[in-house]
Amino acid sequence: MAKFYLSIGANLGDRMATLRQAVRLLADTPGVTVTAVSPFYETPPWGKTDQPAFINGAVAVETEWSGQELLDACLAIERRLGRVRHEKWGARTIDIDLVYSPDEVCQTETLTLPHPYVTQRAFVLVPLRDLAPDLILCGRPIGDWLDRLPDTDSIRKKDSNYGKILIADDEQLMRQLVIDFLKPEGYEILEASDGKEALEIYDKEHPDLILLDVMMPGYDGWTVCREIRRESTVPIMMLTAKGEEIDQLFAYDLGADEYITKPFSPKILVAKIKALLRRSQNEQETHEADDGVAIDRDARQVVLDGKNVDLSPTEYKLLNYLMSNTGKALSRRQILNQVWNYDYYGDLRTVDTHINRLRIKLGDKGRYIRTVRGYGYRYDGK
Predict the structure, then answer these.
(1) Is 353 helix (H, G, I), strand (E, B) or coil?
(2) Most buried residue, 73, 128, 305, 330, by most Cβ within 10 Å?
(3) Do 37 and 100 touch, CB atoms closer than 8 A?
(4) How far is CA 261 from CA 227, 239, 245, 268, in A?
(5) Active site positions, annotated
(6) Could you report the per-residue pLDDT of 33-60, keeping only the tens digit for each?
C-alpha cells in the first residue's frame, strides 16, 4: 500500500459542505482508504488574488493504485462536485491535488510528485503539518519550509470541521443539556435565548442546522422558522414541549425538517442531527454546483461558469428555491408562497415573469428550468 497526501480546497458555493462531500467520496472510492483528515483553514487566494477566500485542508490516503490512477479518481470526484475549469488558479467549487507521497516520485505531463508548488504554498503546508508534523519534504522538515513563508499569519483555522448548530431556546438549562451532547461530536455551537436573537445570529453566522424551541419570548419558533424558510433551506429541527399532532403538522407545513418533543433522548437527538446534516450535505452535491451553475450562500451570489451573475434579491431567492428542490415539480402557488411571502396571495403570473427573466440571465443554462404544463416549474440541472 502506498501513502499519498492530498490538498483539498474550495472557494465557491457552500465550501465546507463540498469539502466534506469530497472526503466522503474519497472514502467511498474502492481501493482507497482515507487514514486522516486535517482541520480546515480559511485561507486567502494564491496566484490569482481577486477572488473569494478559500477553505483548505489535507487528506492522507493509502491505496494500491499508482499516483496517476489516484489522480484520475480525484478528477472524477471534482467533476461530480461541479468543478468547471476556466482559468489557471481561478475560483472553483472544489480542488483536489496530489501533493506528496513518500512512496512515489514522478514527473509526467499530468502529474508531478512532489507537487511543484508544495513548498511555496502555506495553505497546503499548514494542514499537511497537522497530519505529518515530522514530515521531511524535499530534503527539509516541513516546519522549515513554513518558517520561510511570509503569509502563514493570514491562515485561520475553522472553528469546526463538522458544522455550526444554532440552538434557540429560552431555557438556559435546556440549551446546556444539548450543548453537552453536541460539543464532543465536534460541532460549533451558537446560542440564542429568544426568537429575535435567533434571527440575528442566523443572518450573521449562517449555521448549518437550527434547533428551535416553539415557546420563546419575542418571536416564537413558528415565526423564526417561517422567516428563515423565505430565503434558506438550512435544516431546521423543532425541539419543543408542544406534542400535539396539529403542532407537528403545522411545523412541517412551515418548512421544519424534523420535530422532537420534550422530554427526549439526547442520543436520539444527536443521531437525528447527524442524519439531517448528512442528508443536507448530500443535497448540496446536486444543487450547489450543477454543470457550471453554483450558489455561494454566504455571499448570496450565483456563479455561472466561473463568473458572477447579477440577479435581483427575488431572482436569487427564486433560483435558490428551485435548485434546492432539483428534480421536483413545484407549483406556481408553492413558488409564490416560498419566494415572495408565505402568506402572499398575489397574481400567479408574477412567477412566470420572474422565471422568464431568470432564464434570460442564465443564458443557455436557463434550459435547466423546465415548465411543467398546467402546474409550475422544475429545475432539472444537467
Answers:
(1) helix
(2) 128
(3) no
(4) 22, 6, 11, 12
(5) 83, 92, 95, 97
(6) 988 888 888 888 877 777 788 899 999 9
User: Which residues neighbour 99 within 8 Å (Cβ) at sequence distance 6 or greater?
Assistant: 5, 6, 7, 58, 113, 114, 115, 118, 124, 128
Q: What is the largest CA-CA distance in the chain?
A: 70
CA angle 243, 246, 249 (to 5 degrees): 95
> How does DSSP assign 61-129, residue by residue?
EEESS-HHHHHHHHHHHHHHTT----STT---S-EEEEEE-TT--EE-SS-EES-TTGGG-HHHHHHHH
CB 9 within 8 A of CB 57: yes
Chain-centre distance for alpha carbon 290? 14
- Place 341 in a pLDDT band, splitting at 50, 70 and 90: low
pLDDT value, residue 145: 92
CA distance 186 to 205: 17
Return phi, psi of residue 240, to 5°.
-150, 160
The bridge status of strand 32-37 relative to strand 330-331 is unpaired
Q: Nine-digit cell at 237?
A: 429541527
What DSSP character marks residue 341?
A: -
- Domain annotation for the chain: domains and CATH numbers: 2-157 (3.30.70.560), 164-264 (3.40.50.2300), 289-379 (1.10.10.10)
Check residues 262 and 303 and name the one with the higher pLDDT.
262
Q: What is the pLDDT of residues 206-255, one digit of tens each?
A: 888 999 999 999 899 999 999 988 777 789 999 999 888 898 888 888 88
Segment 62-82, tens digit of pLDDT: 999 999 999 999 999 998 888
